[in-house]
Amino acid sequence: MSARFQAVLLAGVGLMYAFIVSFLAMGLSGGGHGWNSAGGSVLGLFALPLFGVAFAYRKHRLGRVLIQLVIVAAMAIDAAITWFAWGEGSYYLQRVLSSTEGRAIWFVWLALWLGWQISLVVVGLRSLKRDSPPSPVHGACPRGGLGPPLDGG
Questions:
Q1: Is 148 exposed, middle or buried (0-12, 13-18, 19+ CB in 10 A)?
Q2: What are all long-range contacts of 121-127, with beta carbons under 8 Å and residues at least 24 apart?
């Protein structure tokens, strides 16, 4: 499977994942009478598809740069959710957690939200830990320039 096809496929999966997380966040908000801070996770609609592209190109320089950008975006989204929650107080979250359905939605939302971020950190750490240099651009020889390989073959 080509990296381009994989990038499109994973971006689509990321977008669907983000829609599910956003839908759950809407459920937590309860029409404005619940925990509205989770609504900040809708910003994942931008970061999650980009994470799919970054994952597909993780062996290339482009993927490594995108992974770093997505990590920064995820941290910014988490900061926004924390800021919203701080301003909102705990009353609405307690209301959501007081019902069985609300607790279930909150735990599923939290698991999905943390799940993609944990996988992002794992992929990010693996890309930093890589011993080999980034894959060359199509048509480039092993020494990094265009032309025949060093061994003459």
A1: exposed
A2: 121/71, 123/54, 123/55, 123/58, 123/67, 124/67, 124/68, 124/71, 126/58, 127/58, 127/63, 127/64, 127/67
**pTM of the predicted model, to two decimals?**
0.76
Cα(153)–Cα(57) distance, integer angstroms: 28
For residue 90, the SS3 value is coil
Supply 93's token pair. Answer: 């979250």
**Counting Cβ atoms within 10 Å, is residue 69 exposed (0-12), middle (13-18) or buried (19+)?**
middle
Q: What is the rounded distance in angstroms from the CA atom of residue 142 to the CA atom of residue 58?
A: 19
The H-assigned helical ranges of the chain are 3-29, 44-56, 61-88, 91-97, 100-129
Full pLDDT tens readout for the chain, 153 residues: 898 999 999 999 999 999 999 999 998 887 777 788 888 888 888 999 999 999 999 888 899 999 999 999 999 999 999 999 899 888 888 888 999 999 999 999 999 999 999 999 998 888 877 645 555 555 555 555 555 555 554
